[in-house]
Structures are given as structure tokens and as C-alpha cells.
């Protein structure tokens, strides 16, 4: 019998499964990491949606994280506290974003190879790992999903559907407003009119968002507590974050192009990609608690950078040096996620993982946690909901035994990453 030859569509489908397989290969270690820090608080808050679906609107900061709470509620309702399902969803979401990025680049450039390699690079790039490896960091990957869908629908001249996706982005994170800048830039790149009636579809949800944001300005904890402040520190945050994203791979790309003998990318090509990276970082740079942005906040900017890498490397794509670069890039980033980053997330989860281990099998009783390393006591309290019979009311957090002398006491030991006290 003659062998069946795969059709072009089947071959393309098999090839585009590679970015998804790379995502799975890169992030497979996270399945056993457990819930980390804010995850426990979000699990508890998500339950409130069953009783009062709109209650998040009473807390301005959480209003613009609604999609995250909905995801947590659905996953918890279906799978309980089994973290495997939560991390599987996070990996699936990142896979979807990688494919959406490829489709967007393909639509913009008409070059399937550029789109494919941009997706492969984005699948494993370790800079934005927190958005995948920390469940609470899914705000960024959810934002990216809705924003990428918004831009794709905009390119397809479906402004009303694009507006619907934009609403999803706005309820994922405030930085979604950047779509108002991205849409006209895409039109400019495609040679379409920048000012046209279709923009009303995006301006309406943006205006409603703006009214809501300004109306709750004074009760927004992120602003009142000084976590975000407009000031000169924003420029240094932007510069340092951009440097950390570019180092060292941007410079390695330059070397590859130089020694592979390919044509240098035009300054316009380089400038557009880097400008897009900076634009996508801009909504976050007003932080005051760090010198550079947390890794989760560079998720979208990293996607733009990976697309830029693929565009710049196009002239040398058929050379051996490109193959070496692609293999090295994938291997290094996957190894870095497995060896370094997964261990860091295990350490971040240790305070609650060890607490649950210490309380498992123990009769519920009033317990004092001393030197709990997280700044919010609610994390310790909410974590015990994973244990049968335990209530958050049984847990107190303090820095001295005098806080509750009659309580069973567990003291966190940073060196051993465990609790000292009766088991």
C-alpha cells in the first residue's frame, strides 16, 4: 500500500505544535510547586463571587483582576485544591499566548517563518517566568491573551469583537489601556488610516474604565500605599528593566548577524521593536518598591522582544550559526527555568508548604506562627483551609510568643526552611 503523505495543512499543524511542546518542556517542573503566597488569599476571595458576583468592585485594586478571580473560582470548583490543574491551566494559557503571538506576527509580516521562530523564542524565554510559574502572576498572561485577541481582531477589521476582547483585558489588569496606543500603531504599520470611526469601539470601554479608575483613585490601595507613584524613579526603572531584558541575548543576536554574514536589520526594524518593548513596559514603571520591574510585568514586552529577535535574524535564518543560536537559546532558557527558577519558586512556597506539613494530622487548635516571612498574615491563615477541620481563625501571626502565650507555637527558621516547635 502507498504511504500516506501528510498534506500541507497537516505538516503546518505538526510544525506549530513545536512551540506548545517547548512551553511544556520549559515549565513542566512547576506542577509540584504548590500554592505560593497571594494564591491562598485569592482562593478565599474567589469564593465570594458565588455569593456576590460584583463584590470585587468594592475593592478598586481587585476590580481590575476579575479574570484571575474567575479562573481561580472555576478551577477550584472543578478540581478543589489540587494545584496540578491550576498549573496545567497556566501552561495552557502561555501556550495559547505563544500561538496567538505567532499568528499576530504572521498577519503583520506575512512571513510564517518569522512568526514560527518568534513563537518558539517566546515559548521558553525565561525573563517573564513569574507570569507562568506563579499562579497569582497569571494576571499578566490573562492580560496578554485578551490583548493579543484584541489586536488580531482589530487587524481583521472586527472592531466590535475587538472591543469585547478589550473589555476582558481591562478586567485583567489596568495596563490593558495600552491597546489604545497599539491599535493605531498597527494601523500605521499596515498603511491604514490612523484616525477612523472604528476607534469608537475601543474608546467606549476605555472611557468607562477611566471613569471607574478615577472615581476609585483615593481608595485604591496600590496608590494610597505608595506602591505606584509618578516620579523620576520611573526612568531608572525603565532603563534597568530594559537592560535586564536585553542582556545578554540581544547582544548575542547582533554577534550572530555579524558573523553569519547576513544583512543588518534596518534601523527602522530595530527601532520599532525596541520602541514597542518600551511602550509595553511603560504602564508599570512607576513602582517604588524595586529598582526594576518584577518578572511577571515584562510578559508582554518579552513577547514583543522575541518577535523582534525573529525579524532581525531573518537574513541569517538558513545559516548554521542561526541553528546554533536557536538551539543554544532554547536549551539555556529551559535549563535555567528547570535548575534555577523552579528552585526559587519552591523556596517561595516553603513557608506555607512547611506550615501545612507541620499542621497535617494535628488536631485543629489555636496556633501562633512566629517570624512568618510573608508580610501579610492572611497568607498563613488562608493556607490552612487546605487542611480538613482547620479554620483561618485558629491561626495567629506575630513576632513574639507573648502575642498568644496559650497557643501552640511554631517559629519559622529561614536557614532550615522549616518550622521549629511541637509536631
Describe this structure in words.
This protein has helices spanning 8-15, 17-27, 38-51, 60-63, 66-79, 83-109, 112-124, 130-133, 138-155, 159-170, 179-189, 199-215, 221-224, 233-246, 249-260, 267-281, 299-312, 320-359, 377-383, and strands at 367-370, 395-398, 408-413, 418-420. It is mainly alpha-helical. A four-stranded mixed sheet has the order 2-1-3-4. The longest helix has 40 residues, at 320-359. The radius of gyration is 23 Å and the shape is globular.
SSE diagram, text form:
Elements: H1 8-15, H2 17-27, H3 38-51, H4 60-63, H5 66-79, H6 83-109, H7 112-124, H8 130-133, H9 138-155, H10 159-170, H11 179-189, H12 199-215, H13 221-224, H14 233-246, H15 249-260, H16 267-281, H17 299-312, H18 320-359, E1 367-370, H19 377-383, E2 395-398, E3 408-413, E4 418-420
Parallel strand pairs: 1-2, 1-3
Antiparallel strand pairs: 3-4
What is the SS-derived class?
mainly alpha
Topology as H/E string?
HHHHHHHHHHHHHHHHHHEHEEE
Tell me the fraction of residues in β-strands, as a range. Answer: under 5%
Radius of gyration: 23 Å
Distance between the termini: 68 Å
Fraction of residues in H or I helices: 55-70%
Count of beta strands: 4
In which order are the strands of the major sheet placed?
A: 2-1-3-4
Shape: globular
* Parts with pLDDT < 50 across at least 5 consecutive residues: 1-5
Average the pLDDT over all residues and give the rounded result. 91
The count of helical stretches stands at 19
Question: How is the biggest beta sheet arranged?
Answer: 4 strands, mixed
Please give a handful of descriptors for the protein shown.
423 residues; mainly alpha; 4-stranded mixed β-sheet; 19 helices; 4 strands; globular; disordered N terminus
Amino acid at each position: 500500500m502507498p504511504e500516506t503523505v501528510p498534506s500541507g495543512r497537516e505538516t503546518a499543524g505538526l510544525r506549530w505544535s513545536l512551540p506548545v511542546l517547548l512551553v511544556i518542556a520549559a515549565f513542566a517542573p512547576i506542577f509540584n510547586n504548590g500554592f505560593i503566597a497571594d494564591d491562598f488569599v485569592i482562593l478565599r476571595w474567589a469564593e465570594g463571587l458565588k455569593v456576590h458576583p460584583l463584590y470585587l468592585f468594592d475593592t478598586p485594586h481587585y476590580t481590575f483582576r476579575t479574570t484571575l478571580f474567575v479562573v481561580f473560582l472555576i478551577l477550584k470548583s472543578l478540581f478543589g485544591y489540587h494545584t496540578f490543574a491550576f498549573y496545567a491551566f497556566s501552561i495552557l494559557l502561555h501556550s495559547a499566548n505563544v500561538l496567538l503571538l505567532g499568528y499576530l506576527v504572521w498577519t503583520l509580516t506575512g512571513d510564517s517563518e518569522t512568526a514560527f521562530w518568534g513563537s518558539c523564542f517566546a515559548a521558553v524565554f525565561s525573563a517573564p517566568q513569574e507570569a507562568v510559574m506563579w499562579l497569582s502572576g497569571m494576571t499578566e498572561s490573562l492580560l496578554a491573551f485578551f490583548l493579543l485577541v484584541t489586536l488580531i481582531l482589530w487587524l481583521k477589521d472586527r472592531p466590535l469583537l475587538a472591543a469585547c476582547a478589550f473589555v476582558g483585558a481591562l478586567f485583567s489588569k489596568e495596563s490593558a489601556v495600552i491597546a489604545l496606543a497599539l491599535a493605531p500603531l498597527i494601523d500605521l504599520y499596515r498603511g491604514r488610516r490612523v484616525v477612523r470611526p472604528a476607534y469608537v469601539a475601543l474608546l467606549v470601554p476605555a472611557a468607562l474604565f477611566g471613569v471607574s479608575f478615577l472615581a476609585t483613585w483615593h481608595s485604591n490601595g496600590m496608590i494610597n500605599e505608595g506602591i505606584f507613584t509618578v516620579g523620576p524613579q520611573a526612568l531608572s526603572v525603565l532603563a534597568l528593566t530594559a537592560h535586564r531584558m536585553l542582556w545578554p541575548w540581544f547582544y548575542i543576536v547582533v554577534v550572530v548577524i555579524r558573523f553569519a554574514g547576513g544583512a543588518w536589520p534596518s534601523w527602522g526594524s530595530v527601532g520599532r521593536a525596541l520602541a514597542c518593548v518600551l511602550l509595553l513596559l511603560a504602564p508599570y514603571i512607576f513602582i517604588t518598591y524595586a529598582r526594576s520591574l518584577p518578572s511577571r510585568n515584562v510578559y508582554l514586552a518579552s513577547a514583543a522582544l522575541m518577535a523582534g529577535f525573529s525579524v532581525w535574524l531573518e537574513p541569517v535564518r538558513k545559516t548554521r550559526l542561526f541553528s546554533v543560536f536557536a538551539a543554544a537559546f532554547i536549551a539555556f532558557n529551559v535549563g535555567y527555568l528547570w535548575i534555577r527558577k523552579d528552585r526559587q519558586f519552591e523556596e517561595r512556597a516553603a513557608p506555607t508548604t512547611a506550615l501545612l506539613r507541620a499542621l497535617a494530622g494535628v488536631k485543629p487548635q489555636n496556633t501562633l506562627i512566629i517570624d512568618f516571612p510573608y508580610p501579610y498574615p492572611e497568607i498563613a491563615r488562608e493556607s490552612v483551609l487546605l487542611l480538613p477541620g482547620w479554620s483561618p481563625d485558629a491561626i495567629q501571626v506575630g513576632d513574639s510568643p507573648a502575642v498568644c502565650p496559650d497557643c501552640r507555637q511554631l517559629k519559622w527558621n529561614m536557614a532550615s526552611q522549616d518550622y521549629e516547635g511541637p509536631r
